[in-house]
Write a structure and sequence with these properties.
Elements (H helix, E strand, L loop, with lengths): L1 E12 L6 E12 L3 E5 L6 H8 L7 E6 L2 E2 L5 H11 E5 L10 H10 L5 H14 L15 H13 L5 E5 L7 H16 L3 E5 L11 E6 L2 E7 L7 H7 L7 H14 L20 H16 L1
Parallel strand pairs: 3-8, 3-9, 6-7, 7-8
Antiparallel strand pairs: 1-2, 1-4, 4-5, 9-10
Helix pairs in contact: 3-4, 3-5, 5-6
């Protein structure tokens, strides 16, 4: 059963000569419990599409149904309630409130459901413990590592047991080790039955997806099913065009430079100082005598 259904959806900003088409007649259907990675260059419409799916924005044309409900017919309060109860958001910038502890940040969405303070903190503590942050629940966000901060943000997104998680570059501010931990966590959440939509620029992260949607110029240009644990075929091709330098590349550059220097016969892999040799005392005296003769003449 499709949890998200989008038909001929467009989003246009401005009017007249200043019109910008952010989305151009998008058609997309996402089944329950899919893990969909959305890829594309900056300005391709990924964020606009996520904002509409997350009920943060409205389309200009077309239709959008979420959980079998027509989003256009939802009132302002109904949209807010669905965002609170059915959709969890994970951002690249974490978006935790700096002055609140991890426990208070995670418990915050429960306040909008009218739960008592005691119950909110208890449920938040259980979620934090589930995600392995029990020893950090009274820490402020600035005292956490990047991976711990994003884990806290994920705990906050999960606190209302949403059926859809929208993750916008969830590992964009993390190192490779923390990125792997966060992706493993999202993978576990997906295995529990949650539908995940993840915007990413990193082809490696498509290993965790069951499907990859590619966007460009506001349109979906390719939609492919993938195998868990493997980089998506189209994303793998894109990896060949990514800049990537290794220590071997540096040595190869040095070798090429040496070959370009006249009189250099170093074999590849060997390096040589390119600085001019220091003058010996004998050479210095010859140089001084030469300059004095030229001055007399």
């Amino acid at each position: 059963m499709a949890i998200i259904e989008i038909d001929d959806l467009s989003k246009v900003y401005g009017f007249g000569g200043a019109t910008t088409v952010a989305l151009d007649e998008i058609n997309l259907s996402i089944e329950q419990n899919e893990f969909v990675a959305i890829m594309g260059p900056s300005g391709s419409g990924k964020s606009t599409l996520m904002n509409i799916i997350g009920l943060l924005d409205r389309p200009t044309h077309g239709s959008y149904r979420v959980n079998s409900r027509n989003a256009e017919k939802l009132s302002h309060n109904q949209r807010a309630k669905m965002r609170r109860d059915k959709i969890g958001f994970i951002f690249q910038s974490f978006s935790l409130i700096p002055r609140l502890t991890v426990l208070e940040n995670v418990a915050l969405p429960l306040a909008y459901r009218g739960l008592s303070t005691t119950r909110r903190l208890k449920e938040a503590s259980l979620m934090i413990n589930r995600l392995g942050l029990a020893e950090r629940e009274y820490y402020l966000p600035r005292h956490l590592s990047g991976g711990q901060t994003q884990t806290a943000a994920i705990a906050r997104a999960l606190i209302n047991s949403p059926s859809i998680i929208i993750a916008d570059e969830p590992t964009g501010n993390l190192d490779s080790n923390d990125s792997r931990l966060i992706m493993e966590l999202l993978s576990d959440i997906h295995k529990d039955g949650t539908t995940i939509l993840m915007v990413t620029h990193n082809p490696e992260l498509t290993r965790y997806a069951t499907r990859v949607v590619y966007m460009r110029d506001g349109m979906i240009i390719k939609d492919e099913l993938t195998t868990l644990g493997r980089v998506a075929p189209t994303a793998r091709k894109a990896m060949n065009y990514l800049p990537f330098k290794t220590e071997e590349d540096d040595f190869a550059g040095v070798s090429a430079l040496m070959k370009a220097i006249p009189g250099s016969d170093e074999s590849p892999g060997e390096t040589k100082s390119l600085r001019r040799p220091k003058a010996t005392r004998k050479n210095k005296s010859k140089s001084k005598r030469s300059r004095s003769r030229k001055a007399k003449s």
